[in-house]
Write a structure and sequence with these properties.
About 25% of the residues are buried. The protein is of the alpha+beta class and about 170 residues long. About 30% of the residues lie in helices and about 35% in strands.
Length: about 170
């Protein structure tokens, strides 16, 4: 049997893969993890062919049962190394943008999934944040607030990629 932490990670991957596939966006995972867990790529349609458009969005994926769900925000203590990697990366106008994806996992493992004839339900929302600012001098973590309306959905992913296209063309 897998340990719970590994199951949490795998459920978070299942969640974001389902979102990407529903959005019609390709998702790839690098051979090595150097602070980027994966990349979403927008596809261009030419006749009956689909191919990568050249527009991409990198992501760092986290899964946590330790989030605080406030009325308007998800509050999460992110490792300072991850925080600094993201803000330094996003400060570069030449780099592919990188978002944090946070999968909120229910504390009770009995609630993680539900299966029925109607389908499969993976409980717990997934949220995105584009972190900017100065690197932190904290030792361990940086407390971040992600607005609860920043749910990671197929429409959200499409909009994030469209916004990249608009920024590149300006």
């Amino acid at each position: 049997m897998f340990p719970d932490t590994q199951i949490e990670e795998l459920l978070s991957w299942a969640h974001i893969q389902a979102v990407a596939w529903r959005a019609g966006v390709s998702i790839s995972i690098p051979d090595r993890d150097f602070g980027v867990d994966g990349t979403f790529r927008q596809l261009t349609v030419l006749g009956s062919r689909r191919f990568p458009s050249g527009q991409a969005l990198d992501f760092q994926l986290k899964a946590s049962k330790q989030c605080m769900l406030e009325s308007n925000d998800i509050v999460y203590d992110l490792e300072v190394k991850t925080y600094n990697d993201l803000v330094v990366r996003n400060a570069s106008k030449r780099a592919i943008p990188c978002v944090l994806l946070l999968k909120v996992i229910p504390i009770d493992s009995g609630l993680w999934i539900d299966t029925s004839e109607e389908g499969l339900l993976i409980r717990g929302g997934c949220y995105w944040a584009y972190l900017e600012g100065k690197p932190s001098t904290n030792k361990n973590t940086v407390r971040i607030h992600i607005p609860r309306n920043q749910q990671f959905t197929p429409a959200c992913l499409i909009n994030l990629l469209k916004n990249l296209l608009q920024e590149d063309n300006q």
